[in-house]
User: Fold this.
Amino acid sequence: MKGIGAGRTDLPLKGDATSRFLPWLVAPMVFLSAVALAAAFLLYALIGRWDRDVSGTLTVEIAAAPGDAAAAADKTHAEVETAIRLLKDTPGVIDARALPQAELAQLLAPWLGDRDLLKQLPLPALIDVSLRADDRPDLAALAKRLAAQVPDATLDDHRVWLLRLIDLSRTVAVLAIVIVALIGAVTSATVVYATRTGMAVHREVIEVLHLIGATDDYIARQFAGRAFVLGLEGGIVGLVMTAPVQLGLGLVARHIEGGFLSDLAMPPLGWAACAVLPVAAAILAMVTARLTVHGTLARML
Amino acid sequence: MRAKPVETGNVVQLEKIGLRYGRGPEILQDISLALPAGSFHFLTGPSGAGKSSLLGLMYLALRPSRGRITIFDRDIARARRFQLPALRRRIGVVFQDFRLLDHLSTLDNVALPLRVSGVPERDVQKFVPDLLDWVGLADQLAAKPPTLSGGQKQRVAIARAVIGRPDLLLADEPTGNVDDSIAMRLMYLFEELNRLGTTVLVATHNEALVQRLNRPALRIEDGQVVRA
Assistant:
């Protein structure tokens, strides 16, 4: 740093007991910030993936017809055929296929269990529809035509479900920002306390430096340089502490059934944000220390 | 090193200065004096008369309770805070209690005024050992103040005060801990600086020293300054 020389300071800050605890306070702060950021980025990535998955599909559900089982099955079958024809004639639809009853039973088995029981239940028919990503059909118009030709059909493009998740991800993102800001404020307050204590301990040295013509900034730079080093040390320790958490989350995600989280991975921007945290903590400590010294010295002669 | 400006008027001017600590009595009362540029004065007086306080006003460690101080033609009461360091760099001070930094080596203590002035490190490494050699401390460059004797500390303090070739040198009992031969050697150093243009004010109890150098003396008694 300018005016201080490589590794040399006029103030004995290196052996200072008051600042030695600073890295151990910064480390958990950076750890918590990294976890909050990682959670927000992971959720964002997950919802992005779900969005991509569902934006290319929709499901048409045809309610089971009431009455005699055989007649109802015939009616439902006819409605499914009509719906599939209509869907395949719609521009933007790549494919439409009825979900076989066996596949439907397999999907419901974890909740309803016994397959014999499922055979007796009036299950709806489901049609899985694949859409072009670049030329999606007008879903409102499609739903209208479908309702006209197949009154028992309902169209589900999964948007309601997804919008709720997007709202959730936004809330989590705001919460993460608030948490990081609060942690930043607490870190700053800690640095202010450590710096003021250090100034009180070294008051005589500061007075001598002043009397021989040192500017406030000359003194502030020495405190700021030390705070930067301590902040960086603590930040790196805090970031390293998040590694087991990240690994643990990955393991848990891989074991969740249904494939919802199996490829849970932090996006590159998330990794970059976490990697920047120790440097951000160090810069925050440096700037806070510098401002604190200036503020405190301004009250001296 | 900075070019030495030529002072033509008074380097220090005190007008009706009063000084009190807190709510205590005034220890300096209505002091008016001027130190012309290039002058050499002694400041004498009994212990507790206020010599150190008077010097403290001049090296900008204290503010007067009343009156006006002008240093290098600048009214100190009106000087902005950011302007004070530049003024202080033109003043060399030998403190009575030395005020050396115990964690720094002799060399680093003496180098401080140069470093705060932004003098390049190669010049620091050249000038400081030369001066320490001159004051007889060439073998103590790496020593820390707690390992030095009282006399050695005093010489380090003097070297620190003069290393930047100050325009004003204020010395508070600079020979109190050294023997006569070293005291005279240090006084010759002050005289040499004075010949080069530095205004010097030396506070001392040593009447013999005052008489030997035959320089004008200011005497402080009962809070007032009189010509001795």
Remarks:
- Strands of chain A lie at 57-62, 93-98, 125-131, 153-156.
- DSSP finds ten helices and four strands in chain A.
- Chain A has two domains: 17-52+162-297, 64-151.
